[in-house]
Design goal:
Layout lengths: L1 E9 L3 H12 L4 E5 L11 E3 L1 H5 L7 E5 L1 E5 L5 E5 L5 E4 L1 H15 L2 E4 L1 E6 L4 E7 L2 E12 L6 H5 L7 E10 L6 E4 L10 E6 L2 E8 L5 H12 L6 E8 L7 E2 L2 E3 L15 H17 L3 H25 L3 H10 L3 H12 L5 H15 L1
Helix pairs in contact: 1-3, 1-6, 6-7, 9-10
């Protein structure tokens, strides 16, 4: 089978589905290629509430609304940060991603289940994909690679995969938790954190580490610390680490996890994937490919650089993790954190204020 479109979007998650919707809504011929339309990505499913208005997402996809988060230090000190109206929505990724693809289809995208295999060409790309044992050949002027941390497009172009954090998560039914908890401590999450998030019918808990071979042992230690004995479904997956180095290769734009666009320290990815997909689509609509990098850096560069610095400092060891939790007992730090992390405030004043407060209290 041979197909043709102006833009091929590879990957039907939040980045790819959003890109396809933006393009199709402007009358651009676009094919959205997703490997598995029934895939449920392992993910805490947290997304800022304001994103539902920003991207016109049905609020019926929200399973829970979280109005506060809790930080727990290695020594057991804890602080609750009230989120107010700038809360967090918990979504079920299989349903959420499906709704985003339905919006892309309703806007005029061709949604196709198939697996990317190869890409050739420069000004006009020829892409090979497979649906079962049937070969598909797609011709496109532009490609948006939104096919995740294990991006096959990235590999096909000879671009090295991003460095990764490995996470082990477990979904447990019948256990309730009404806050998003972030647990710090080298005994169960050296250089990272462990978490407990509310889920649709239970909780999602897990831990992150840079060595996958140690995850099982670290996770068991975290469950003992948390006091959870119940068992559920476990999955190990990769979270890309942002380095700011990949935006495009020729007329191929990378968005979301394939570009490592996950916020350092918190490892939030859904909102940034969707926004990156929209920005990549806008660059194509404008006919200015370099605008993608410019727009992304204008929106997010300062935030990502700052959060990487905070990650490098506060997650070094238990002593610095204690400081991170202690800092967030201060109302002014909580206010600045909400502005940066939840309201997606990109104003220079907010960054200077937050950075200044951190330096002030550390000294």
């Amino acid at each position: 089978m041979r197909l043709q479109a102006k833009v091929l979007v590879v990957g039907g998650g939040p980045a790819g589905a959003t890109a396809a919707k933006v393009l199709a809504a402007q009358g651009t011929e676009v094919i959205l290629l997703e490997r598995n339309l029934s895939f449920a990505k392992p993910c805490g499913g947290g997304l800022i509430l304001s994103a539902f208005h920003e991207f016109s997402i049905p609020r019926t996809t929200i399973k829970k609304e979280i109005r506060n988060i809790k930080l727990i230090s290695p020594a057991g000190e804890h602080v609750t940060v009230e989120l107010g109206e700038s809360g967090i929505a918990i979504v079920q990724r299989k349903e959420f991603d499906s709704v985003l693809r339905e919006q892309a289809w309703a806007a005029g995208s061709c949604v196709l289940e198939g697996e990317f295999s190869a890409i050739t060409g420069n000004t006009l790309y020829r892409i090979e994909a497979w649906t079962g044992d049937k070969k598909i050949e797609i011709t496109a002027e532009y490609v948006i690679a939104a096919d995740g941390v294990n991006s096959k497009v990235r590999k096909a172009l000879g671009i090295s995969p991003p460095a990764s954090l490995f996470a082990l998560s477990e979904y447990i039914r019948g256990v309730q938790n009404e806050t998003c908890e972030f647990w710090f401590g080298s005994s169960h999450a050296p250089g990272s954190y462990s978490w407990v998030f509310p889920a649709h019918e239970g909780i999602s808990l897990g831990t992150g580490h840079f060595s996958p071979g140690e995850l099982q042992n670290l996770f068991e230690k975290f469950k003992i610390r948390k006091g959870i004995k119940a068992e559920g479904l476990r999955k190990i997956y990769r979270i890309p680490l942002w380095d700011g180095g990949l935006y495009q290769s020729g007329r191929v734009l990378f968005a979301g996890d394939s570009a490592g666009q996950v916020l350092p320290l918190t490892y939030e990815g859904i909102y940034y994937a969707m926004t990156s997909g929209a920005l990549a689509a806008q660059a194509i609509l404008l006919g200015e490919m370099n605008n993608y990098k410019k727009m992304w850096k204008y929106r997010f560069q300062k935030r990502f650089v700052l959060m990487e610095k905070l990650r490098s400092y506060f997650l070094k060891d238990d002593t610095t993790a204690e400081r991170l939790v202690a800092l967030h007992k201060r109302p002014e730090i909580q206010l600045a954190s909400r502005s940066l992390w939840l309201m997606k405030d990109s104003h220079k004043k907010s960054f200077l204020s937050y950075s200044g407060l951190i330096r002030k209290f550390l000294h």
